[in-house]
Amino acid sequence: MKFYNxxxxxxxxxxxxxxxxxxxxxxxxxxxxxxxxxxxVGIKSLAVVSCGERKRVFKNINRNHKMKRLNKQxxxxxxxxxxxxxxxxxxxxxxxxVQNIYGRIKRKRHEYIKQTVLKxxxxxxxxxxxxxxxxxxxxxxxxxxxxxSEQNLYLFRELIERKALELGIKIKFADRFYPSxxxxxxxxxxxxxxxxxxRIYKCQKCGKVIDRDFNAALNLERLAE
Length: 225
Ligand SMILES: [Zn+2]
Known about the structure:
Layout (H helix, E strand, L loop, with lengths): L1 E10 L2 E9 L13 E6 L3 E7 L2 E6 L5 H19 L5 H33 L5 E5 L3 H4 L3 H10 L1 H15 L2 E5 L25 E3 L6 E3 H10 L4
Helix pairs in contact: 1-2, 2-5
The structure holds zinc ion (ZN).
């Protein structure tokens, strides 16, 4: 193992030693499986994966019990902070508390993204198809913007791309206008009026009933060559 770029930082009233570690692969030949994968990235779940047409779900960490509790604590202390007198000692104390909780939330979210990316890539597919999400455009919608930043969707995509490259996994992006959610994975019918609230896809043509996100992931998987 090699260490680089060590630096000491003072963050949230804690001293942190940060450094980069290079881990050399034990075996430079990574064997990929002869399977394709489609990943539907979203708000409800972080990622719904279809690999060999089998479904795997990676949850949105912000919906888990512990994170909800931390977020509640954060809001609670932010309220107290707002009431403290400017320049007072108590205000400063409360400020550290808020920074501390915020830092914990941030680190947990980051760690979760890294772990999820590793789990997904450990399936070792040959090709991964992702939606070419217009994250910048989505950020203009206030409600979506909050979920996107809370879930680190940028980081998720960046890490998937970077790590896949290292492993020799091919990444393909679906065309921005490809209707992965609206297309029936069974018969190809396009449901033009699909609402965001419809969590279950019900095909008007062939009668297929399927989880909305898995339907999209299946369609994406099939775009791989
Ligand atoms: Zn259908």
